[in-house]
Amino acid sequence: MALHIILLILLFIVIGYSIYRKRKTFQSINRLLDCVLSQEPIALSDTKEGELSALVSKINRIQQVLGKQIMQAEDEKEQVKSLVSNMSHQLKTPLANLSLYTEILSIPQLTEEKKADAAQKLKRQVDKLDWIIGSLAKMVKLEQNAITFDIEPLPIRGTILDAIDTVYEKAEKKHISLTSEPYDDILLYHNRKWTAEVFANLLENAVKYTAPGGAVQISIHPYEIYTEIMFTDNGCGIRGEEIPRIFQRFYRSPETEQTEGSGIGLYLSNLILEKEKVKSMAKKNIRLLP
Predict the structure, then answer these.
(1) What's the angle, vertex CA 193, arms to CA 251 and CA 148, rounded to 5?
(2) SS3 label, residue 160
(3) Which of 45, 184, 200, 249 would be a feasible disulfide site paired with 163, CB 3.0-4.6 Å?
(4) CA-CA distance, 196 to 30, in Å (whole number)?
């Protein structure tokens, strides 16, 4: 009889201890989950038991992953806010000008000469607005990898001529000469359409910031593992301390604030070249020098 009582007592002790352990384990897990939800660091010193150590380690890793994702989401949120703010700033001026020139054209007593002048200015603002919206759309799609393009070995001369065609008229109006050193029409791995856009952006800047009567020169130098393509002008130039920033989105030098521009072209060019660089891998690619 005494033996049965002892066994029963031992059974109650085992059951009670088991319940105590489970409750303690539940409390420990609950505390760990609270730390994850509140993004508080996990105190590993409180959970050194062998049963929980592996679980704590995994929960700790989950917490780190969640923390990184939250930080990334916050960064993306700030980038979106910055992008929207910059887009609003970029579009505000041409939209205001469109409104202004539309009102001018609605004046009944306006002479034909002034109407033609206002219509021409209105068209320039429409073209500018179209370019900004198109560039912003390309920029966002490239950033989100929503645009993919192939590269293949193509003659570089045709790509350069495509870019020259887009700026030739502007260069002529400013009496700026566009010249090129003699070069062989070599094959380079690139996408003709997108690379021509990069070159056009560089030439646009060269023509824009070069005084009337100036010169822009294109030179091509093949090397063993890459080909160097350089665009050189005798314009105002770029200060050395600004060079690391010129490919940043919407960056414009304080010295050029009075000159029409958006700060998108070079950033977009850099995005395109990065995409081509990834595509080219071990193949020959284009290196752009500032």
Answers:
(1) 80
(2) helix
(3) 200
(4) 60
